[in-house]
Structures are given as C-alpha cells and as structure tokens.
From TrEMBL:
Organism expressing this protein natively: Postechiella marina
Gene3D superfamilies, alphabetized: 2.40.30.170, 2.40.50.100, Helix hairpin bin (1.10.287.470)
UniProt cross-references to SUPFAM superfamilies, sorted A to Z: HlyD-like secretion proteins (SSF111369)
Domain named Multidrug resistance protein MdtA-like barrel-sandwich hybrid: residues: 68-215
Coiled-coil regions listed in the entry: none
Protein name stated in the entry: Multidrug resistance protein MdtA-like barrel-sandwich hybrid domain-containing protein
Length: 372
C-alpha cells in the first residue's frame, strides 16, 4: 500500500514539473513591452522684436508743492477777525491770516515818523538860503508827507554838498530808522502768500503770541508733489518732463503726473536717487499714498518675457524641431515680474510659460487651442 501511495505522489510531482517548465519556456519567448516616449505639451510664442518701453514702478505720498509754515516774528495778542483761524479754512492771496495787536508799537512808529518830519522841517530855512535849487523838491516832499501812510523815499541828492548837509543833520539815519520800524510793524499782520487752505492751527483768537512761536501751516491744494526713491541703476534713465501714470492703492483712480526734478546726488546709505513727480487734481489731498509708473526710456529691438523663463546663465529655452534647446540672451532691464531681452533673432520660437524639469533635448509639442 505504501509503495502505491509513493508512486502516485511521484507521478503527480512529475506532472507539475512538466507544466511549470512549459510555462517558463512560454514566458521566455514573450516580447518585452516597449516604453512609450513622453512628449510634453508646451506654450510657445514666436519672437518679434520691437521697441519696449521701460517702466519703473515707484510709490510715495503726496505733499503740497507750495506750503508755508507760519511763525511769529513779533509778540502780542492774537486779534479776532471775521474768519476763524482753524484747519480747513480757505484764504485768498493777500487775505489776512493772523492779526496781532500792534497798538503800542504803532504809536512808537508814528512818533519816529513825526520826528523825521520835524528834522526835515527844521532844515528847510537853511536849504532855501544855501541850496535854493534843491529847496523845491524837499518842500514838495514835506507837502506829500502823510503820517498815516508809508514813509516815502527821500528825494534823490544831486550833489555832494547837499548830501553832506542832509546827512549831517541826521535826516538819513532818521529815515532808515523809520523804515526799519515800519518793516517790523508789517510783521504784526501775516497775510496769505497765495490762495490756499490752512492745514494746521496751533493758536486761537485771544491767545498771547510770542516771537518765534509756530502758528500753523498753510498749503496750496491745487498742486502736489510726490517724492520717490529709485535704484541708482535708473539714474541715467530718468528724464525731467516725462509723463507718469499714477493710481491709488485700490487701482480705482488714475491720475497723470510729470517728473519735475531729479536729485543730482545718490543717497550713500540706500544707493537710491530721488525724483519728484508733480500732479494736479481736485480730488487729491495731501498725504494720499499713490503708486507711479515712470517711463524711463525705450529699448529698440527687444522683447519682454516673464522672469521665470530666464535661466541662471542668462539663457532661455527655445523650441527647435520639436526639441528644447538653449540660447544665450542679453537682459537689459529687470522688473518685479518681467525682463527685457535683446539678441534674440526674429522668428525664434521660445517658451511662453516655464516647463517643470525642462532640459536641452527634451521632446515637446506646442499647445494648440481647439477652435469651434
């Protein structure tokens, strides 16, 4: 019985071995699968060189081009007037901003003017006798002398004798003393140098004003300037008179400005150069933050592409016979997202968007949009 069982097991093992060997022979002759070549689809564009405007982005806040800080040069009490000295108050050119009580000083000025009149009147008899030819003009001067008006200029002296005589009597020194007092008297009234608006008021009517005290600030709201700091690399590109496009941070308002001044020196600490942009618009206010795009210059025979397409060795990928290749280029200007390139022949096919893992010799095919 045992021999029969062993014989059956042996026959089964021989059969299994035969089947296994047959499968091995069949698999050995089966051809291996061929890997398909991966062809990436890429976005391309054909180079067409032309003029490219270099636009330099900048930003800054607006400051009134004409502004005056008001300071007192005399002391006295701020006299009330018909217009309140408050921020936001508008004034016309020549209108009084501040009137300081000058009654006491005015009296001293009138006294000095009276003394000058008396000094001239005292020498009139001598002039009639010794200088009859100049007497009429001095008499005419006295006739037109008015204590309530600004002291007129002394008559012109035509000879040395007349000059010595008048000067020796102290008339010339008295005249200039009066003019000095009148000049200081005018400082008790501060008038608007131009039509504008008061932006800061540090005193109120009735308060005592001291000499040297700051009273406020006055600006012309019709014209503003924006100071921008640009890299020194753009120093040779900036031109006075260039038009500048301006916008607010939300891009909801657009304005047009003009480069009026460019600083002649470069900041040693920041290595930047300062440019000033003038802008006029009734909607603008001092302190508004704006963004500017300055047209620096125009580069001929160039193209503008994304900075991500430029390789480290100043090269870009081109498509040639469905393969990627590398071409050296000459960058002439970098912005935050773009770069301006030269030395690329017209008709060259370049990538429009970067391809991950791209290398020279890579097989690609251009993307074709489906048209209905």
């Amino acid at each position: 019985m045992r021999k029969i069982i062993l014989s059956i097991i042996g026959v089964v093992l021989i059969c299994l071995a035969f089947i296994f060997s047959k499968n091995l022979i069949a698999n050995k002759n089966k051809p291996k699968p061929v890997k398909e070549k991966v062809v990436k689809t890429v976005f391309i564009e054909t180079v067409k060189n032309g003029p490219i405007k270099i636009i330099i982005p900048a930003n800054g806040s607006l400051v009134a081009k004409r502004r005056v800080e008001l300071f007192a040069e005399v002391q006295g009490v701020f006299k009330p007037s018909g217009v309140l000295f408050k921020p936001g108050q508008t004034y016309s050119r020549g209108q009084a901003l501040i009137r300081i009580d000058a009654n006491e000083y005015y009296a001293s000025v009138q006294s000095a003017k009276s003394n000058l009149y008396n000094d001239i009147a005292a020498v009139m008899p001598d002039l009639r006798l010794d200088f009859p030819d100049v007497y009429p003009k001095w008499q005419n001067y006295l006739n037109n002398y008015d204590l309530d008006k600004t002291t007129p200029k002394l008559p012109k002296m035509t000879s040395d004798k007349e000059n010595y005589f008048i000067t020796g009597r102290g008339i010339v020194s008295s005249y200039y003393n009066v003019k000095n007092l009148e000049q200081r008297l005018s400082k008790y009234n501060i008038t608007a140098p131009f039509s504008g608006i008061l932006t800061e008021a540090l005193v109120t009517e009735g308060s005592l004003i001291r000499s040297g005290q700051k009273l406020g600030e006055f600006i012309d709201p019709s014209i503003y300037e924006m100071e921008v700091a640009l890299s020194k690399d753009y120093a040779s590109l900036l031109k006075v008179g260039e038009t500048v496009s301006l916008s607010n941070l939300d891009k909801t308002e657009a304005y047009t400005g003009k480069v009026t001044r460019v600083n002649g020196s470069i900041n040693a600490d920041t290595q930047t150069i300062t440019a000033f942009i003038e802008v006029k618009n009734s909607n603008l206010k001092e302190g508004i933050y704006l963004e500017a795009n300055l047209n620096a210059e125009e580069v001929a025979d160039a193209i503008e592409v994304d900075r991500s397409l430029l390789l480290e060795g100043q090269e870009i990928f081109i498509v040639k016979d469905s393969l990627l290749d590398i071409m050296p280029v000459k960058p002439v200007y970098f912005s935050e997202t773009k770069v301006v390139l030269k030395d690329i022949p017209n008709g060259t096919v370049i990538l429009k968007k970067p391809v991950p893992g791209a290398y020279a010799g890579m097989l690609v095919k251009p993307f074709k949009s489906k048209t209905k």
